[in-house]
Structure formats: structure tokens, C-alpha cells
Amino acid sequence: MNLLRILLFFVLISFGFYSCTQVDLYEKNATIPQFKWKSSYSPEFSFTIKDTTAQYELFLVLRHNEKYNYNNIWLNIYMQAPGDSMRKISVEEQLASNEHGWFATAMDDIYEHRISLNKELVNNNFSFRKAGDYHFKIEQIMREDPLQNVMNIGLRIEKKP
Q1: For site-directed labelling of 64, which of 71, 75, 86, 145 has its Cα 20 to 30 A away?
Q2: What CATH number is attached to the domain comprising 39?
Q3: By CB neighbour count within 10 A (0-12 exposed, 13-18 middle, 19+ buried), where does 75 fall?
């Protein structure tokens, strides 16, 4: 009877691990030195796409402290698919409004924005249709240089269920 219970326990644990499939494909964040993002500092991100039949959601991850002076951010995002040349899109992302405050999750005085970039990518005809290595580079193009109080910038890619 004890052996049967132990076997049943391991079977249940195995099913538990099997049913918890990992959705996240990639997340990498670059630390902004001294929380002062110079326009000359352009963090780069590279990852490999193997499953071209899946749909993906691409997020910009931005962390700043409460002293960030703007309700938006302007960025150049450079994207390169396997075998293609580097392409650039310029985006303005809203981070806050007067009515709602920050569009972010907060912990004490740190705010994290997870902003979907899929709309920008689709409009600029960029997708993960080729297997291989993808490269991204992000630069801030705000008037303030260096841009104060930005802690991290990054990319997160999730497979859509």
C-alpha cells in the first residue's frame, strides 16, 4: 500500500509539472548606468526563434523611479530578422495620464511598464516568420539627454496560448 501511495504521488507530481508549460520565451533587461540613459547608450537584445508556427507577443519592459519627469517616452527600436537588414521604427509610448497616473505596476517608488509592441511591429510589417536569430536595439530619443531616473530597459517575448 505504501508503494502504491508513493507511485501515485510521483504520478501526480509529474502531471503537475507537465501541465505547467512555460509561456515565456525570452526576457532580458539592461541596467541603465546611474539611472541616466544617454542617447548614445543603446542596449541590444538577441534571441532565437525556432517555432515559426506560434504567435508571439513582444513587450517593451521599462523601469523607472518616481522622479521620472515625463508621462511618455520616445524610442527608436531597431529590428533585424534572420537574413534581413536592420529596420528602425520610432515609437512614442504613453506611460501615464493625469486621470489614472502611471500605467505600470509599482513597488514602493519603482514603476515597471510592460508595453506591447505588437501593434507597432504589425504596422511595420515585422514578424517572427523565419526561424533563426533576431536582433533588437533600443535607443531613447527624448529631448532630455541623459534621460534621468530610468533604471532598466528590456524586451520580453511570450508565446501566445
Answers
A1: 86
A2: 2.60.120
A3: buried
Taking the model in full, what pTM does it have? Answer: 0.80
What is the rounded distance in angstroms from the CA atom of residue 101 to the CA atom of residue 110? 14
The size of the chain, in residues, is 161
Q: How many domains does one find in the chain?
A: 1
Which is nearest to 124 in space by CA: 76, 89, 157, 92?
Answer: 89
Residue pLDDT, tens place only, 50-69: 888 888 889 999 999 999 99
Host H or E run for residue 3 = helix 2-19
Number of neighbours of residue 136 by Cβ within 10 angstroms:
21
Longest dimension (CA), the chain: 72
Which three cell numbers mark 31? 541596467
